[in-house]
Structure formats: C-alpha cells, structure tokens
Design goal:
Layout (H helix, E strand, L loop, with lengths): L5 E7 L6 H19 L6 E7 L2 H13 L3 E8 L9 H5 L5 E5 L13 H6 L2 H14 L5 E4 L5 H21 L2 E5 L13 H8 L2 E5 L1 H10 L2 H14 L1 E2 L4 H21 L3 E3 L14 H8 L3 E3 L4 H13 L7 E10 L6 E5 L9 E9 L12 E7 L2 E10 L4 E11 L13 E5 L3 H11 L4 E5 L4 H11 L2 E5 L5 H17 L1
Parallel strand pairs: 1-2, 1-3, 3-4, 4-5, 6-7, 6-9, 8-13, 9-10, 16-19
Antiparallel strand pairs: 11-12, 11-18, 12-17, 13-14, 15-16, 15-18, 16-17
Helix pairs in contact: 6-12, 6-14, 8-10, 9-10, 10-11, 13-15
This protein binds manganese (II) ion.
Manganese (II) ion (MN) binds next to loops.
Length: 489
C-alpha cells in the first residue's frame, strides 16, 4: 500500500503590513509546519503565504493535480481578505482543514503594542477565512487550538488519516468473485452511484478464473506461506491438507487482486464452484495484510474495511469485517456477539490466533475449511455500516465498548468479539434498526467516530452517529429531516 502522502500548509495574509511582517509570517509558518510534522502521521509541507487571488488559485490548481497531496491546511497569521480566496476555494477538489491557531501561546503583558497586534491577529483573520468557507458551503474541518499542543496534533493527525481514507477511496478497486448472496437486500447497491460519489471501481470476476489460478499455484509457493502461518499462528489441527488448501486459495486470490490493483474483494458461499472450501484462513490472512473483505458478496463492506484499515494505525489498523450474530440478553449483562461464518480479521485478536478445521454446513464445502479462531480485544470501538438509500448513501456509525467475552463458548468454531452497544444494547439496536444499518459492519478499535464523520463530510454523504446520548425518538426526527435535506441537496 503506497502511503506516500503529504499535506500542504497554505497561510493567508495580505500586502497591508509591509514586507517585514510578511517575512516573519513566512519564517514562522515554515517553522510551524516543520515542528508539527514531527508529531503528525504525514508531513505538513509549508507552501505559500498567499496575498493575492492568483497565488491562492495557483496553489489550489497544483494541489488538485498532485497525487501525493492528500489535502490542504489553511491558517491566517494576519488578516487575509477572503474575497481573494473565492476562485481558489471554489475549484478545490482536495480535503480541506482550517487550523485556527496562533504563533504565540500567551499574550505578552509587557511587550504587547500595536505592532504585536498587527502581526498576531489570527483571532480575526481566521474568522474572515471561516466566513468565506461557510458562505461557499465548503465541506471543511475546523480545528482550533495552540499549534504545539498535543491535542491539536492528535486531532490534526486524525483528520489527516481520514483525508488519506478519501484518497484511497478515490482509487479503490473491488474484486467481486461471483455475485451477492441471493435475495439479500442490504448488500445490494448502486455501483454507478458509489463510483461517482466515492470513486470505487466495483467489478466482477468469475470463480472459475480463480480456480484456474489456484490450480497453477506451486507446492513451493504453498510451503512458503505455510511457514508464515506457522510463525504467526498456533496450528491447532492435524488436517494440514486443509491449511495448505487455504494457502493455495490465498495465493491465487492475492495474485488476482494485485494484478488488477484491487484492495478489496467479496465472495459468497453460494458460488464456490470448483473450490473445495470457502476461503476462511485465506480471507483472514489477506485482511491481516490490509485487504478489505465482505462476505455474501457484500462489496460495500469490503471496500469500507480496506478504507478503515488504511485510516488506522500505520496504514493497516485494527479494523475488520464483522457481523452481528446473536445477543446475550441477561439483565445487566447485555451484549452483542459478533463473528462470521469464518472470516474475522486477526487484527482484532487478543493473543495468538489458532488455526482450526471444522465442518461448515452452509454452502458448498466439500472439505472442512481451516480458519483462525480467537477472542477479540477489550476496548472502545465503533461499528460502521454504509447503506444505499436509493439516490444517496448513508454512513451509520455506532459507538461500542468491546469486552472480553464473558463465556468461553468452547464449541463455537469461529473467532468472536463481544461488545456493549451505546447507549445500551436494546436502545442501541432500536437506533441501528431505525437507521437501516446492515448486519455486516466494519468494526474498528483505532478509527474514531469523529474520523468517520470527517470522511463522510469529505465524501459528501449522509452521516448518522449513534452515541451514548442517542434515543430512538431523537434519531427518528433526525433521519426524517436529513431525508428531506438530502433530497433537496
Ligand atoms: Mn455475513
């Protein structure tokens, strides 16, 4: 995964203050970009202290056409009359963050005079800048705070990761092995709409073609991948042939994905013609390497999984395809149990996953598929679902708290994650169902709801957030109003 992105620092000013002030602004802006870059996940590159319409328009054109530029961050050290920003901002096609900060942390009691005020007037410069973005209805992130504070670095860094999620989305290619599971509604969607809005290229490849590539995989290739499995996982089965078969599937799928530049894939147990096992371990280990996956042909969740992985720590975070399976409804101990038939990404695991083989009754499995079995980690997380509302996309995000599963479930042959939905299990379920959230989600420990909100804003799609404060009544009203607003948009 190429993560060679950077962000551009564009500082607003004007000629009114004379060359000395402008030199100081430039020096300081360079220093700030350099210093902040030490604490940010991607470099912040100082570009210009813009004083004219042309300078702003030129830098925006350059940003739009530079594939390594994942967004611009603006700030006004001094006052920058905003009519000069209109032409540039109106043509901006990259994510945009307004950092409302100031060079000095404190007001210097003894030194402060009118010269100081003229140089350090971000408090009103940033308001003028904010007005024009509001007036232009620009989708943008506003972050206010001192540029050396840890909190500002964290928030700016999180926004950068969401912006990289935008860049990755715009070049996302999804490989569908076969179609969606028959008759299922929520895994359907308008592929033209997602390509227009999100940039995704979603196309299909025949399972027969995959089987052909599988048959060409050599024993040496399988041996090499077996060594990786043995190193990363505990082998808890004597059925080595089943593991080797999964290795063959993984190698073949990876070859096809890489040949087409696809970062995500889907398949369905209803279409495994010519395959002995549903890919379990194969899909799980591909997800561990950053590929997105969706079961039952769910290409939307496959692409979202890949995007959230990229937005997470080090470009491959703890985010995974997940499915709400069953509830524990004992009072005071109300939990969701999430799992899948086989395919849960080991990035969620607490401890070392085990490779096991078990019978799988669903689908056309001639042999018992090998899969990774483990318990999910405890900790705060989110679940995310992208649905097609007909004419627009809705992104639903729910805050959850994962717990160590409260029982061992020794006969459950798959990886499992247990969590408490916000605000509580039943209210959370009522909200989720009211919003139309799918049974498939991306569960993430290291992408935040704020980042998903940022991503949805940048992609210009509807965002619904279910939190500890949500109620079905408030949500119903919010959805009704949003439905009207999105129809007008
Ligand atoms: Mn499923």
């Amino acid at each position: 995964m190429n993560m060679n992105y950077n962000f551009w620092f564009v500082v607003g000013s004007q000629f009114l203050y004379g060359p000395e002030v402008l030199e100081t602004v430039e020096e300081r802006a360079k220093e700030m970009a350099q210093e902040m870059s030490k604490f940010l996940p991607f470099p912040l590159v100082y570009k210009v202290t813009a004083k004219t319409n042309k300078e702003i328009t030129d830098i925006v054109k350059e940003a739009n056409y530079d594939d390594t530029c994942a967004g611009i961050i603006t700030w006004c050290h001094t006052f920058s009359p905003s009519k000069m920003w209109i032409n540039g901002l109106a043509s901006l096609s990259k994510p945009y963050c307004h950092l409302a900060t100031q060079y000095n942390k404190e007001i210097p009691n003894d030194e402060i005079d009118m010269d100081f005020m003229n140089l350090n007037q971000a408090a009103h410069g940033d308001r003028e800048h904010g007005f024009i973005a509001a007036r232009l209805r620009m989708p943008r992130k506003v972050i206010a705070g001192y540029w050396q504070s840890e909190k500002v670095h964290k928030r700016l860094g999180d926004w950068m990761k969401a912006a990289v999620g935008v860049a990755v989305s715009k070049s996302m290619k999804v490989m569908r092995f076969g179609d969606n599971m028959r008759e299922v509604a929520v895994t359907e969607g308008d592929k033209v709409e997602v390509q227009t809005k999100l940039g995704w290229q979603v196309n299909t490849w025949a399972v027969g073609d995959l089987v052909k590539v599988m048959n060409e995989v050599t024993d040496a290739e399988i041996d090499a991948l077996m060594a990786v499995y043995t190193d990363k996982y505990d082998i808890a089965t004597e059925n080595t042939d089943a593991i080797r078969y999964q290795a063959r599937e993984e190698i073949a799928m990876k070859k096809m994905l890489d040949a087409e530049g696809c970062m995500a894939f889907s398949n369905t147990f209803q279409d495994l013609y010519g395959m002995e096992q549903l890919p379990g371990l194969a899909s799980q280990h591909l997800m561990a390497q950053g590929y997105g996956y969706g079961g039952e042909g769910d290409w939307k969740v496959a692409a979202m999984t890949a995007i959230l992985k990229v937005m997470g720590e080090n470009g491959n975070g703890a985010s995974a395809f997940m499915e709400d399976y069953t509830y524990h409804l004992a009072e005071g101990q109300e939990y969701s149990l999430g799992a899948h038939m086989l395919e849960v990404c080991p990035s969620l695991a607490e401890g070392k996953p085990r490779i096991e083989t078990h019978h799988l009754g669903i689908g056309m499995n001639e042999k018992d598929p090998a899969r990774l079995v483990f318990e999910g980690k405890a900790g705060e997380a989110i679940v995310v679902s992208l649905i097609d509302m007909g004419g627009r996309l809705r992104l639903i995000c729910q805050d959850i708290e994962c717990v160590k599963p409260i029982m061992p479930m020794p006969n459950l042959p798959v990886a499992r994650v247990m969590w408490k939905a916000m605000p509580d299990l039943t209210t959370g379920v009522e909200c989720w169902i009211t919003a139309g959230g799918a049974h498939h989600t991306v569960l993430s420990y290291d992408v935040s709801a704020e980042q998903m909100r940022d991503w949805a804003r940048m992609m210009d799609i509807e965002f619904v957030h279910i939190t500890k404060d949500s109620t079905p009544e408030k949500l119903e009203e919010e959805l009704f109003l949003k439905d009207l607003a999105w129809k007008l948009k």
